[in-house]
């Protein structure tokens, strides 16, 4: 849905609100004002021009104040109001809800992230994962039922865990390049097994933090991400004692990851 469509929907709902207010149907007027605010805020989110954004914010504040005045005046029971963009009798006028539009954009960004991830374009993948999470978090504010909010939180946790793995990988590569450039005249660059092991340990620390907080899906993804780097470190490591230590760590965290499966099904 284009930004102009958000405005069209907002204007239509504001017209309904004004008519309802003229007819002294304040419950419907409040519902329509609040529905219009959803679209005004969504339009503001996607507006590029700073002056237009300021204008939309000003209008949103104006109608929010009007809606609050109605609520306080007639004691509207907000828990009995319809879902946004729906009439107070429970029917829908054909609007696509702001939440569904924002979620659609979130999943589009997530798909672009996954495609970039699969192509090993990690910089773009990280950028798209973070954009998708911005959209998911923005959509969550519109989730009126706990089930939809829980689903969004699950998506955020999944993509966040992958984004954190990618960020650690990118940071590690950047640190390695910086160290190599700084030490170019002092000796050879850090061997790959050191870089991979360092990254594996950092990701494992993140996994443990998520595990302790009982964010099991995120912890599971991070443990598996760390496992990949342990495998690479093991591949390039020549010292047998170090290889044994790496294998032990791999077995420990893989066992924990397997144990977490029962919590995320």
Automatic annotation (TrEMBL):
Reply yes or no: does the keyword Coiled coil apply. Answer: yes
Q: Which residues form a coiled coil?
A: 46-73
InterPro entries, per database record = Intracell_Sig-Traffick_Protein, MIT_dom, MIT_dom_sf
Keywords, sorted A to Z: Coiled coil
Under the heading Gene3D superfamilies, the entry gives: Phosphotransferase system, lactose/cellobiose-type IIA subunit
Q: Name one Pfam family in it.
A: MIT
Which segment of the chain is annotated as a signal peptide? Answer: none
Q: Which domain of life is it from?
A: Eukaryota
Q: What sequence ranges are listed for the domain MIT?
A: 3-78, 99-175, 193-265
Give the matching SUPFAM superfamilies.
Answer: MIT domain
Return the protein name. MIT domain-containing protein
């Amino acid at each position: 849905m284009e930004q102009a469509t958000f405005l069209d929907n907002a204007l239509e709902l504001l017209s309904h609100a004004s008519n309802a207010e003229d007819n002294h149907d304040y419950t419907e007027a409040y519902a329509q004002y609040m529905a219009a605010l959803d679209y005004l805020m969504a339009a503001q989110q996607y507006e590029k021009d700073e002056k237009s954004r300021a204008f939309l914010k000003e209008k949103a504040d104006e109608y929010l104040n009007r809606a609050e005045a109605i609520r306080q005046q007639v004691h509207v029971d907000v828990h009995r109001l319809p879902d946004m963009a729906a009439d107070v009798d429970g029917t829908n006028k054909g609007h696509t809800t702001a939440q569904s539009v924002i979620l659609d954009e979130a999943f589009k960004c997530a798909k672009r992230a996954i495609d970039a991830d699969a192509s090993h374009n990690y910089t773009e993948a990280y950028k798209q994962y973070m954009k998708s999470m911005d959209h998911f978090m923005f959509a969550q504010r519109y989730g009126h039922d706990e089930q939809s909010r829980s689903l969004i939180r699950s998506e955020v946790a999944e993509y966040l865990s992958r984004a954190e793995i990618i960020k650690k990988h990118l940071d590690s590569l950047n640190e390695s390049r910086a160290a190599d450039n700084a030490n170019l005249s002092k000796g050879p660059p850090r061997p790959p097994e050191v870089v991979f092991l360092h990254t594996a340990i950092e990701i494992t620390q993140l996994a443990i933090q998520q595990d302790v907080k009982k964010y099991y899906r995120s912890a599971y993804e991070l443990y598996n991400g760390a496992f990949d780097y342990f495998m690479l470190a093991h591949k390039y490591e020549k010292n047998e004692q170090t290889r044994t230590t790496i294998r032990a760590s791999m077995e420990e965290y893989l066992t924990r990851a397997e144990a977490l499966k029962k919590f995320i099904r």
